[in-house]
Predict the structure.
Amino acid sequence: MSTLKGANISSVSFVETPEKSLNLWNDGFVQSMQTSYAESEYRERVETLVKQVKILLKEMQTGFDGDLIERLEMVDALHCLGIDRYFQAEIKEALDYVYRFWDGSVGIGLGCESTTNDLNTTALGLRVLRLYRYHVSADVLKNFKNKNGQFISHGGDNDSNLIDIRDEHMLRSMINLLRASSLAFLGETVMKDAKVFSSAYLKQLLEKSEDIKQKSYLKEAEYALLYEWPSTFPRWEARSYIEIYELDNSRLKDKIILELAKLNFNILQYIYKMEMKKLSSWWQNSGVSKLIAVRERSIEYYLLAVSAIDNAEFGSSRIALAKAATLVSLLDDLFDDHLTLAQVELFIKAIIQGWDISIVQNVPSNFKKIVEFVFKTLQELTTEATQIQGRDMMQFITKAWVDYAEASLKQAQWKEGQYVPTYNEYINIAATTGASGLLSLHPILLAFPNLEDDSIEKIFLSKSRFYELIWLTGRIVDDIHDFEDDKLHGQTASAISCYMKDHHEYSEEDALIHMNNHFDELLTELTWEFLNPDKVLLEWDKLYFNLGRGDQSFYIFGDGFSYHDKGVKQRVFKVLFDLVKA
């Protein structure tokens, strides 16, 4: 965030940034979207398929030599395909069964009567059981390392050498080992070893992909190398795994599972399309794009909303989150490129004094129109939240936006004076401008009625380590990817520059390495906070966490919030626009 040094309060500068401000999804395109999946016949087919899959799951109740791996692969498929919500009772029964045979020192074999423990089954079990919050230690993987530090297929054989790279079972083991490693907790060095080893193995394998017959495993290996669990989100995972399983029908117990996944995906996408039409109309009618050059990302922010809360019934929460994110982006661009310190101060004063638009009467008309649009939208969101919560939500929403604006002002003052704060001074302010608490507040107020005041305050004031970690990881990943870009725009304060101020002996490269390592540690701690079996996890905690995952996904290939060519365009198409072929 920055300001124009020395600008006069009576003028507003318009900085053209076409590569950032371009809107790829104009209103005409969004309004033209069509789909037939609103028909009742599709929902009725889903109900039929769910009943049939429940019968398949019931058939797994009889023990046999492959019953553990079959249960795990079934639960994993339902989860990855995004249809696990239909089978919660059956999944619990399957995993309770697997857990009864889980040996914390040596792992498990293919079945309940297996005498040999198996790396593929154990790695998959570690991942799936952790995702569903069972107590399982990563130490179990130590049983599958030989004296050379290599991971081998069967436990206890410390003299074995690495199996031929074309071996399908070893390929499956390495994929599941890598997937398990993305759920590491702090201090688990064996998970770091697993990640390094499996990644190297799979990268080597992909270079010789012509030797592998099972193309679905190749595609899954590519996915696992690119998208770690803390940095992706359920709808993208569902679309990706539909494409993976399409390549090999034998990997699923019955083709009706894939049919259900496709149908569920397309029905949800229909709902998303209807919501995007409302959102696009809202942005088009604002006229902001005709007033000033800013990033136009309402559809991208809707994707972020889908990452946080994808259930069909939470449409108002998705739209609210997308609107709030669009406003944050708009204000960030205004504060960064167009406004003076005095104008930002007026904006904050107007919020504090009851969203009083009269306070900005003496500013340029374009700026005033934008402020009117922002205030009007936030008042509408407040009215919605008040109706759901049964009491006035203005105090909470006002506090959240004032905190964001005041933190933005502080960053503007730093830039104005070319001041580089200490790291601790910086991170407290910058985490607030990252707006994680602010963005989660609006959808949570609409999704969960009758919240206590203390719960609401925790959401946007970061009153727990869990929330604090989401704020910190969101800020630091942005600073890591935008460090060079920010320098070009005259930004003086970032996590990297402030860390260098505290540690004069560090070069820029050293500081970047440190911040990347620090980020990995924070993300690992956040994973523990979310998956800790002893932690009581509330429904809005899950929304908050998934919003953080969605935020991280925008940075996999660079800053996808600022630039279109960082993988986000592909995800918008595949999750929101392109139907899955039946």
